[in-house]
Write a structure and sequence with these properties.
Elements (H helix, E strand, L loop, with lengths): L11 H20 L8 H5 L5 H12 L5 H5 L1 H10 L7 E5 L8 H5 L5 E5 L9 E7 L2 E4 L4 E2 L1 H12 L12 E4 L18 E7 L2 E9 L15 E5 L6 E6 L2 E3 L17 H15 L3 E9 L3 E8 L6 H5 L4 H8 L8 H12 L2
Antiparallel strand pairs: 1-6, 2-3, 2-6, 3-4, 4-5, 7-8, 7-12, 8-9, 9-10, 10-11, 12-13
Helix pairs in contact: 8-11
This protein binds adenosine-5'-diphosphate and magnesium ion.
Magnesium ion (MG) binds next to loops.
Length: 347
């Protein structure tokens, strides 16, 4: 649940304004028409807004009863595992305060792992441990963490400090994803993730989120990660967007963001499409990471995916969604739905 109710999912106004401005400028050039106005302009440009997303898509296609499956990362893992969908391996769960003592058992022999709240969001409360140094742990950033600091961090997670609604939570300890080298030149530390919007089981848009120095290795856009659109047919990246600016180079490395071929692209989209069968959520955000050794892994699902995938792709979602909405039936087979999405929206 990247941004349920908070974060980038619900902070679209500035982004949409920027997208609108850019598309309007483009239209102006094309048609020599006078400057257009909001919000009818945004509608004309086919940009999905917050109210439409909530009312016409989430409200109609997402049954609230299925939310707990995606709002709790532990439940998502169990669900995915049962369906043969790969996720980062679960090392252990700490559920109540006194279980913090069980850490020794969970962490025995492990030099690297990730701790996160089961119901966290927006990249909050995530500790990535990359190595050990004596009795201490080293974060991905290189900072040292003592055992008691680690326990304190977990206690905070259990108290709900980072979680939806602030209710008591569980702490997940899992495999630390080793990112595939494909994005090395355009990510600063951390693990890029690939977000796909899957509507009625059909992939309609994708973007990759690339960590920057500012985002502290996390792939959350409002923390300062770059979002780069991906062409559905080819799996190649288009321009990137950083905060509200289009850019073609990574701010830290200066390397080009455009034209990167995502490996295992069709497999990744099929994973995303199959996630619909799993969650029964008709309007779903699927976040996948590419692991060096294990290939595509589902990191999390989102029942209220954000709108800025439109900015990253410099296109509005509305016409795509309407085309899928108009279908009397969508194919049962996930691979057929991928082919449909690629045929309709790729290129
Ligand atoms: N197992 C992991 N290994 C490495 N990095 C991770 C792992 N889990 C999360 N991260 C990093 O933290 C970010 C946020 O994690 P995520 O599970 O998506 O939670 P949230 O709901 O807070 O977005 C990810 O985009 C990724 O960059
Ligand atoms: Mg996330």
């Amino acid at each position: 649940m990247a941004f349920p109710g908070v974060g980038e999912g619900d902070r679209p106004a500035a982004l949409m304004t920027t997208l609108g401005r850019r598309l309007r400028a483009r239209l102006r050039l094309m048609r020599h028409s006078p400057p257009l106005r909001m919000p009818s302009t945004l509608r004309a440009l086919g940009i999905l807004g917050m109210n439409e997303r909530n009312g016409d898509y989430i409200g109609i296609y997402n049954d609230r009863r299925h939310y707990p499956l995606v709002d709790d990362k532990l439940k998502t893992k169990e669900l995915a595992l049962a369906a043969g969908i790969a996720t980062p391996e679960l090392y252990g769960v700490v559920e109540i305060e006194h279980q913090v003592r069980e850490l020794d058992r969970i962490l025995d022999g492990r030099r690297e792992f990730v701790i996160k709240p089961a119901q966290g969001s927006g990249g909050n409360g995530i500790m990535v441990i990359a190595d050990r140094r004596g009795v201490n742990f080293l974060r991905a950033s290189g900072a040292s963490v003592t055992r008691s600091e680690l326990e304190h961090f977990i206690s905070n997670a259990l108290s709900g400090m980072y979680s939806l609604g602030g209710l008591p939570d569980k702490a997940i300890i899992e495999y630390r994803v080793k990112p595939h080298a494909v994005f090395d030149a355009v990510s600063y530390q951390g693990v890029p993730d690939i977000r796909t919007i899957v509507f009625r089981g059909v992939p309609v848009a994708s973007m990759v989120r690339l960590p920057t120095r500012q985002s502290d290795g996390k792939a959350n856009l409002h923390q300062g990660a770059i979002g780069a659109g991906i062409d559905l047919a080819s799996g190649r990246t288009v321009d990137g967007v950083w905060f509200n600016n289009v850019l073609d180079a990574h701010p830290d490395s200066g390397n080009r963001v455009r034209g990167i071929q995502v490996p295992d692209w069709d497999e990744l989209l099929t994973l995303a499409a199959r996630s619909y069968d799993l969650t029964r959520l008709g309007y779903l955000g699927v976040d996948v990471v590419l692991d060096r050794d294990h290939g595509p892994l589902v990191l999390e699902y989102n029942a209220r995916p954000g709108l800025n995938i439109q900015l990253a792709n410099q296109m509005g979602l509305l016409s795509r969604l309407k085309q899928i909405r108009a279908l009397a039936q969508v194919p049962d087979d996930a691979a057929a739905r991928v082919a449909l999405g690629q045929q309709l929206f790729g290129g």
